[in-house]
Amino acid sequence: MKIGKATTPSSAICTSDEDTIVVRGRDLCAEVIGKLSFTEYFFLLLTGKAPTKATLKVLDATLVAITEHGLVPSVQAARMTYAASPEALQGAVAAGLLGCGSVILGASANAGEMLDEVKQRMSSGKSLQDSARDVVSEYRAARKPLPGYGHPLHKSRDPRVSALFNTASEAGSDLSYVEIAEEIEKVIPEIVGKPLKLNVSAAIPAVLLGAGFPLQALRGVPILARSAGLVAHLYEEQQSPIGFALSYQATREYEYTGDMPSND
Amino acid sequence: MKIGKATTPSSAICTSDEDTIVVRGRDLCAEVIGKLSFTEYFFLLLTGKAPTKATLKVLDATLVAITEHGLVPSVQAARMTYAASPEALQGAVAAGLLGCGSVILGASANAGEMLDEVKQRMSSGKSLQDSARDVVSEYRAARKPLPGYGHPLHKSRDPRVSALFNTASEAGSDLSYVEIAEEIEKVIPEIVGKPLKLNVSAAIPAVLLGAGFPLQALRGVPILARSAGLVAHLYEEQQSPIGFALSYQATREYEYTGDMPSND
Amino acid sequence: MKIGKATTPSSAICTSDEDTIVVRGRDLCAEVIGKLSFTEYFFLLLTGKAPTKATLKVLDATLVAITEHGLVPSVQAARMTYAASPEALQGAVAAGLLGCGSVILGASANAGEMLDEVKQRMSSGKSLQDSARDVVSEYRAARKPLPGYGHPLHKSRDPRVSALFNTASEAGSDLSYVEIAEEIEKVIPEIVGKPLKLNVSAAIPAVLLGAGFPLQALRGVPILARSAGLVAHLYEEQQSPIGFALSYQATREYEYTGDMPSND
Amino acid sequence: MKIGKATTPSSAICTSDEDTIVVRGRDLCAEVIGKLSFTEYFFLLLTGKAPTKATLKVLDATLVAITEHGLVPSVQAARMTYAASPEALQGAVAAGLLGCGSVILGASANAGEMLDEVKQRMSSGKSLQDSARDVVSEYRAARKPLPGYGHPLHKSRDPRVSALFNTASEAGSDLSYVEIAEEIEKVIPEIVGKPLKLNVSAAIPAVLLGAGFPLQALRGVPILARSAGLVAHLYEEQQSPIGFALSYQATREYEYTGDMPSND
């Protein structure tokens, strides 16, 4: 039995023979290793083009901004997994990445789509303010959350937001999505009835889209960033284990709400 | 029931409150975002110290060297997974990383341990050549493979090896592990009976250990690197799917070797 | 920093002390081990109730129906992962399960929701035929695929469908969702313009919902079933490896569509 | 580039065409669905043979014994993952399985190897007691832990042990590995200096090896069992979420041990 389509697999990313590895049209060994930083190379692999200086600055800043935020659930899951399966570091990193889904880190990509919707309204002649109001109102009407606004810990603005916006501004990167993100923040109180401040999940697409990062690839940014954070945590876990201690603490006040056997 | 130890979890990596995120003793927003590259930050998170220029150069080069090598098994697994589960990019990246184990990318860490064993012999006064010979002979006697030597495709030396060694040399990084790696390559023919050339898995620890990267954290390097390659492949998969085509091709000549039902 | 909610974790599934493990109100060692089959226990853990004989028969049949279907993409991904990382069987199973997503095995849960929508229309007095027509028409209008109808290989009806329906019928299980599934199959040609036959993904919820299996838990059924199939494949992989051969075959006709370096 | 071997993939597990699915020589739809339980089918897929009644009884009992043990680390990791990524149930199950590694559930397979070593000594004529003593002494000399003996919670014998041994005995299954396991328990105090009671990880191979379950496939048993437990927990998580509450509790007493920024 054959599963899948009878087509020939192709890719524009890499080819190689015994002597040469070609990536995106460049000789890996002659033109890339030692010449490009890891971040520059990531952008090249993803888009086929080397980043400009401004784009590189912005991409490095966004990766740095979300690499690490302490013992968040995905880091806890990874450290518990490593404690139980120290033979497979890759499994513990994978377990941590599996928590980079829609609720937490996936919000960046959703926020990017919202910003892009506003941008599209503007390209048909509507003002920034009206476009932002329309999109926020439509999200509210459809009872969709506003991705990238509000944060359980940072009730005022998430401090990473300004750091990212300043970096984009100093790098001379396009700020049009930043303006959109800030306009959305401004119109939220009147439409939603309470202030929801920009958090890092909206700031990331705001600066990345302006820097030419593809909208459809946004979900990959937190995943790559967290891989670095997870590797750091798992190295610490190897040296100073807390995986099982986290698990102990988590259930210290555990309540069983089911039935007990009747002892007849 | 409590699982795990009754100890308090601690970590030296990150803390935060409503206004500030502190990573390795630095204010993330004031001192890190926009100031450090992703690679610099990775080294800081992992070791607690900022990398020197030479270390940064070498770490970037090693990450770049192993980020991508075409449609290797782990990339195929990731693209098939994404084709079947496009709602979960994180799952496809995780599936790809799960193939970064002992046989393929895990060889870097094992090679690092072998280089380090030679180094330790030397620190007790033995010559480089004798130390290399002893360690290679012991691996052979124990029937252990020599991790980082030999490659199915690159029968002569993997071209990434020279690129990494040149980068380390130009950056002014410590080359003592590079010398060890080359000495091992020299003594292999007489001991093993055939030439096994240095491949990228031995070159990575050779340059990284000289640059001050922790031996115990080597396994994390290919995992982080491949995350970037996987994100690039999965973005291409989203735009130009081949996941099911790979699966079709893989079983075009499939043979079922079991029994068939008897049609009585 | 605290992530998450300040509430006390509770669960109705299990509690234990030094002498006793209680699951869903029963003493695991005195009342469950050796008394319940694995399938009965799965239903008990999931719902808190032991299955009736009819429910058990149907649940066993559905699990059996989707445990195995040859070298499908998720099995290929798992075998490639195991070949690269033989130290971590759990990682290879996980890689295989990560392909049990929305496109392939996730269709069962989506089909269950479609059947349930028809059921709900009927409970407000509409006829089976009208309810089925309305729901299929609405899916078409919204350009949503009809989950569980059509199959790339089994152009006529998937043979597993009748086997499941017969099992449910012989077991005396409620067949009302089976009737809904068959009515949908009947109305498809006029609405869609081509016949799309019931496949196993619609047959599974058709029999399971009638057997009292919770709609919201349907996604777990193929995941559990495939775990068994993956363990069998990975045991065969350990004894007769084909993981790398699959990868080789998959790229035999690979085409690189990117640029080549200019050799100036 | 081609990765992998130029061989044709083959498998003895399954083949299919448009009308028939054949598994291990049987017609899935005519001979398996509705006829075999999930556990019987798992054994058939794995070994190519249907289990005897005694083997089925023992295999069901072992699967049941380790499906569930409350909010253990892998369940916590899975529930945290699901809370963050509810769009991907398969990812949360995978995250949980990734913790089924060497330290916790992997012990079953290691214990099986230890029992088998004793069995092999006996087959060369040595007594049960001497064989057990020799193997335990060798493990101690090599500073290897004794897998399957001792338990953090169940200081006396894990109650699942007797339940499994009784099931095997009542089913008329071969008890020779059970005798080995109990002999090891007897000789431990004199060799190790303290009593380490049989736990479920040694009891599982003790009954399964006697029932004809393949030694090399033991690692798959807890993985399959835990898949069922994880699906039950994740269904409860969907209905009554505690994933983020677990994470909150885990870090309530978190201590940051790194430096703080100097505020100059």
UniProtKB/TrEMBL annotation, chains A, B, C, D:
Pathway info: Carbohydrate metabolism; tricarboxylic acid cycle; isocitrate from oxaloacetate: step 1/2
Keyword Transferase carried by entry: yes
EC number: 2.3.3.16
Keyword Lyase part of the UniProt annotation: yes
A molecular function GO annotation: lyase activity
Enzyme class: transferase
SUPFAM superfamilies with a match to the protein in the record: Citrate synthase
Domain of life: Bacteria
Pfam families per UniProt: Citrate_synt
Keyword annotations from UniProtKB, A to Z: Lyase, Transferase
Entry-linked PANTHER family: CITRATE SYNTHASE, CITRATE SYNTHASE, PEROXISOMAL
Protein family membership: Belongs to the citrate synthase family.
Name listed for the protein in its UniProt record: citrate synthase (unknown stereospecificity)
Species assigned in the record: Marinobacter iranensis
Taxon lineage: Bacteria, Pseudomonadati, Pseudomonadota, Gammaproteobacteria, Pseudomonadales
